[in-house]
Hints:
Blueprint: H1 2-50, H2 64-73, H3 77-107, H4 109-113, H5 119-151, H6 155-178, H7 182-208, H8 220-254, H9 257-281, H10 285-293, H11 298-334, H12 342-358, H13 361-369, H14 373-397, H15 399-424, H16 430-458, H17 464-486, H18 489-508
Helix pairs in contact: 1-5, 1-6, 1-8, 1-9, 2-3, 2-5, 2-10, 3-5, 5-7, 6-7, 8-9, 8-14, 8-15, 9-11, 9-12, 10-13, 11-12, 11-16, 11-17, 12-15, 14-15, 16-17
Amino acid sequence: MKINQLKAGAILSYATQGVHILTGLLYTPVMLRLLGQSEYGLYQLVYSVVAYLSLLSLGFGSSYVRFFSRYKVKEQNHEVEKLNGMFMTIFSVIAAICILCGGVMIKNAESIFGDGLTVDELHKTRILLAIMIVNMAVTFINSVFSSIMTAHEKFFFQRLVKFLRELFNPFLTLPFLFMGYGSVAMVAITTILSVSGLVADGFFCIKKLKVRFRFSAFDFSLFKEMWRFTFFIFLGMIVDQLNWSVDKFLLGRMIGTSAVAVYGVAAQLNTLYITLSSAVSAVFIPRVNFIVAKNVDNSLLTDLFIRVGRIQFLVLGLVVTGYIVFGKEFIALWAGKGYSEAYLIGLLLMIPATVPLVQNLGIEIQRAKNMHKARAVVYLLVAIGNVFVSIPCIKKWGTSGAAVGTAISLTIGNILFMNWYYHKKMRIDVFLFWKRLMGLLGISAICVGLGKFAKMFFLIPESLGSLIVVILFYCVIYAGLIWLFGMNISEKNLLLKPLEKVRNKLCKE
């Protein structure tokens, strides 16, 4: 049953990402043109500021699976109920603090966003802030139920709710955009869907999983132990916010909303790229924690690290190489005029991010082993350096300069330091990891060359139909070469066995 949940969760994760990407590709161009560059930039700017409120969680959500696994192995159900009660209490308090902090932000919006906004933009900013803050508070509460479902390995329902939210969001939002409600409608619909997700997840946990919450006594000793564990996760969250949100804030203050809009287009593509990588690794979080809790030999973790990394690269390699070849033409047709610089920004963000994305299961291994402290401290120092590097880079190179600092930060912290740390401190065989990945990297490089050749001779400038045909041709080339020369038997069976089951069922009917 757990294996089926893992497979179903992974399939639904990719289905969700598929819908997210497809709706983004179809919905974003319409949204950009209906909002205009200025309002889209305003939306991105406000979102980047509200995102800092996510730091209020202090990383506690990431610790639930670890402590749940500890009690479940020992069959201490009473302690699990206390843990549930503690988490609900903690996140309810966090949600209340979020609303209070949000009220302060709304009152001081002019001071926060500087002189780059007009009077009308400031008025709309306060409305967007209010709705986004409510959405953030709801997200905090729902993170309790989400953590519980992850710990119980109930991935199917969890991913199904996310899938439906991704599916309905653009269809509910577009009519309001056509009626002229703009970015306010976008965040309002998102908040309504967040509330619906909270109700669905809460019902599933309480009615189906029979989850119980014990609020009788708050265990402060356990809280201190959890805080010692989550503090460095919290530092990691600060790093993520500095790396992925501070650029928009700096651009908003130093240049204006149009620059934020251009950066936002590239950042949106990068976000799709990042979330795609978590579809597989997320369902292995409980397994990693149980392996560590049972003190199994490190070779099992190395094997899992390599297997998940290769599967992730099979997908990510297609995306990043495809962007290298066709990204400039795609952005010109997709986003429209005024966004050409987004291609270079996308390259600066996506290429160095690829290494930590194929290794992101290592983050869960660190947390399970309680060895995430060094990573958090180093990342924080590098991210602070990112801020100081980005300011002069923006002055020299404009919007693209903001991405330069982030690229440097990712290279130093996420690539160089982490590979050393995985190998030397965590005893994961990184050399074996790269040896197993080298063939896929070589095939990807060949695909880039073939893609550029195909584009040179077959792509008709400014033709969407021609671009789609050439991209589909590229996907066939990539898939064919990867299947023939890159994938091993186990990876091929991940596709062949489900297809065989479907074929057998159809034949019986």
